[in-house]
Amino acid sequence: MTIGYSLFGLSFSWRDKDFRLFYKHGFGFAKAALRLGNIQLEVEGKEHITHGESYVFVANHTSVFDIPAVWVAVAEAVGDSSGGRLRIIYKRSLELIPFLGWELKVSPFIPIQRERARKSMNSIEAAVRAFQMGESVVIFPEGTRSRSGRLMEFRRGAFHLAARAKKPIVPVAIIDAHKILQADSVQLHEGTIRVVFGKPVPPPEHDDRIAERSLMKHIHALVEQMLPEEQRGL
Question: What domains appear along the chain, each with residue ranges and CATH number?
């Protein structure tokens, strides 16, 4: 299914300058992935999200199914039935994956190359421009999927982005996605993924490392509180 959707998306990417078709097609893929995997999605905390507002959504990451789950959940929370006001920040190395990576490369989603500071700054600038267009951004600040399902330490990029964009940060807990499909596994299990939105946290008043690190620790603690005991950090 992923190969088919990717090839279809690539077939019209050259003329999809405003990404309208990408969002329609990609959002359909996200919903289809959950449906075909017989995965139920439960969304909590939507009352914390204001329709029409843009946010930095900061989520834990344990499974490839986090992406379709959080895409559908965020679109539902912000009142966007087309899924077209959302940018997801992903590792540039994913572009090396045949088909899916090719589609990511031509998508409006934002690649980040963490080991190269200048490239990372380009990604942050792209995210800031997305906010200026009224879009929200999703970032997984652990940097990679947790193999154990437990919350790992955060990296600073998401919080530098929040400080630069002056947008509220929403802590997001994705629960039990690792039970559906674990990292480095191909064994799929049906079940339920819960996506829980916390209350938005204002961005730091000052754009400096001390403020960003303080915010990072605060958001990490909020996400950890929303997770069940078996997914909290060690």
Answer: 2-228 (3.40.1130.10)
